[in-house]
Amino acid sequence: MPAAAARVIAVDTYDIRFPTSRSLDGSDAMNPDPDYSAAYLVLRTDAGDGLEGHGFSFTIGRGNEVQVAAIEALRPHVLGRSVSELCADPGTLSRALIGDSQLRWLGPEKGVMHMAIGAVVNAVWDLAAKAAGKPLWQFLADADPAWLVSQVDFRYIADALTPDEALELLTRGRAGRAAREAVLRAEGYPAYTTSPGWLGYSDEKLTRLAQQALADGFTQIKLKVGADLADDIRRCRTARAAVGPDIRMAVDANQRWNVDEAIRWTRALGEFDPYWIEEPTSPDDVLGHAAIRAAVAPVKVATGEHVQNRVVFKQLLQAGAIDVLQLDAARVGGVNENLAILLLAARFGVPVCPHAGGVGLCELVQHLSMFDFVALTGTTEDRVIEYVDHLHEHFLDPVEIRRGHYRAPTGPGFSAQMRPESILQYSYPDGAFWAADLRDQPQEIPA
Amino acid sequence: MPAAAARVIAVDTYDIRFPTSRSLDGSDAMNPDPDYSAAYLVLRTDAGDGLEGHGFSFTIGRGNEVQVAAIEALRPHVLGRSVSELCADPGTLSRALIGDSQLRWLGPEKGVMHMAIGAVVNAVWDLAAKAAGKPLWQFLADADPAWLVSQVDFRYIADALTPDEALELLTRGRAGRAAREAVLRAEGYPAYTTSPGWLGYSDEKLTRLAQQALADGFTQIKLKVGADLADDIRRCRTARAAVGPDIRMAVDANQRWNVDEAIRWTRALGEFDPYWIEEPTSPDDVLGHAAIRAAVAPVKVATGEHVQNRVVFKQLLQAGAIDVLQLDAARVGGVNENLAILLLAARFGVPVCPHAGGVGLCELVQHLSMFDFVALTGTTEDRVIEYVDHLHEHFLDPVEIRRGHYRAPTGPGFSAQMRPESILQYSYPDGAFWAADLRDQPQEIPA
């Protein structure tokens, strides 16, 4: 643990953008041209142990500077704080950030300001796990259940999950933990891959990547849909032909539809046996998802990557609106709120299949699923973490996939730390990549 | 109308903050120390007619700079646009802003980025109404119903309101319009006042202000509650004694409670005959509001000032979760989205009683209620606009209250324009007020 007197002496921020739109990686019906980006922060301390807390909000390009500004607005809450107190109790900081009496107006608990809170809170957990010398999944799995309960904000969810119920779930979840940890270290955690299915890819590329996914040991793939029904039917047929009948094939509409359209379109794809329909409509529409789910069964309904906080997840579960909960590590208020969401999912018996991809999301979210397996639900049945093979090379401790499974990270922390040279090169607009790029295309400099 | 060739040549932004926290004006259980602020913009054109479009997001202090950054992120969508095209069809810009394929990730349609869209869209409506030489309420009431329908984004609400249904509501709403316009001009639109009820006020001040409200012709007041039940009981008793049994007395918890707490606390105040309980819990909790409403009747349930968009309002109406819809002019995506919300409320027969106060919110929202009366629902029964007597002196065309009613504005535009000298003085941190203030208290400069 850090020296008792050590303080946070800097909260450094970076606007990091990768030019992914140029290869159509990540293209879908709602997001045709993402430049995967991170509003990134580093907590520096005077502990003298060389440890830093790294965290980030994921965005897809324009507006990343707004996200950085939001992180900077939180700086006064963190600067000067005791490192040992932060690491011993990230929940107190989490509550202080969410409860800031003026910043709260900008949400509350949603959008830019809430994602900024998530970035800062996650950086603290990265630091805490590093100080403990453990990967975050293990740091959480080794933690005392009562302490984990103390890290959860039950405001607005107590009608669905009480602290006592959470404690019971976590206490029960510990039984057999050592055996599951051994399984995790040996086999990893199941993954599925979205790499074949981006909208911008040709049918030939789709077929090739789908067959590659099979060869790589994945048992589930995902296709983007929602722009054009005839195209979707052709692409689903192509993918199904490539992978055969036994592989799960999810489809993802990225919020393109109204409720009625979602029902019609999903039914029209039914002959290809889609496993789930993801983001059929607005992530805010609890009742809409419930109506869609009732109409498209046995196709499952999945959402979560844009669900703003635990309050909306609570309702999706209360209303029986989803079959699959897609946790995201960087959308909500960080590890503390994701503990609440994992507990809610466990309480309602709904499997969590995290959203990942982008930049760094795979690195982060694997820890949460692995904790869930080792010390909460105790199962990986019907659970898979999304995997996309983009941009991992920029991380010090990148995810490792073997035979369709995430390997359990062994390095201390949250796997959130980007390589210094990547930060330098892709900082916007002054890093080496962008400076050269913008010099070549002066007429296209965004404001 | 502006010359056909005229373009938007500048989108100037200002970070304007008023030090209201020092007088405890605006103090409530969740917001103890607001500094009412505006992330403000001015659209300037080369039309040569001297007209500008003014708009703003309302915030309560810290983070106003984040809100300004979000408005600036939208600048490329507006700069260079044809003024006549913008004014003839603000809906096209509104859709472009909401649909920005990268900025969308930062919401979608919620929080900082969505409020920024609202500010820009409202500035366009201000300019359009000025160009037409009409106050906005009249500009809307005179508009062709089919054109108004074209201004609404039905995405995600078509399961509750179709374009055809909207057209029917607006067409029917026009009947008798001239007579209602005459009534509006003669009598104004009913208001209620929150001025007596801020948490930070003494009982003596509460009594004095409540009696003053009666003398001023108001028939409804509102008290902040939710910090301490014994205090609330004493304050409700004091206020009820001051105003007698015939005045409506609403109470407002500003999201302090869980569902169960909201039910218990509201019932505990029942003997004082509260008219509505406002913001009993998270604005995101549709199902929670429905449960509270079922349990606290005949006390009505009201919410809206923090409801992020039309999708959540749709569900509040579908679930029968609210008796009163509290429209806010600056929280959602501007006039276009507020048209959708007014139409949804009309469709479900739920009265709209707008949230106002802060800085400039009264000036804006009166136009929307007046349009609703003249050309949509045709009634003011059980409808009142909140009124708070703060900061109106900073506006060129401030609201005017007479005998408990908002007078109908007569000046062209959206009444959004702040006095230049106020902008100069209260710009943060360099305006005259803040420069002097921060010089006196250098240790308290926020980051």
UniProtKB/TrEMBL annotation, chains A, B:
SMART domains: MR_MLE. Gene3D superfamilies: Enolase-like C-terminal domain, Enolase-like, N-terminal domain. Signal peptide: none annotated. Residues 203-299 form the Mandelate racemase/muconate lactonizing enzyme C-terminal domain. It holds the Pfam family MR_MLE_C. It comes from Streptacidiphilus jeojiensis. Keywords: Lyase, Magnesium, Metal-binding. This is L-fuconate dehydratase. The keyword Magnesium applies. InterPro entries: Enolase-like_C_sf, Enolase-like_N, Enolase_C-like, L-fuconate_dehydratase, Mandelate_racemase_C, Mandelate_racemase_N_dom, RHMD-like. Its cofactor is Mg(2+). It catalyses: L-fuconate = 2-dehydro-3-deoxy-L-fuconate + H2O. It is an enzyme of class 4 (lyase). Its EC number is 4.2.1.68.
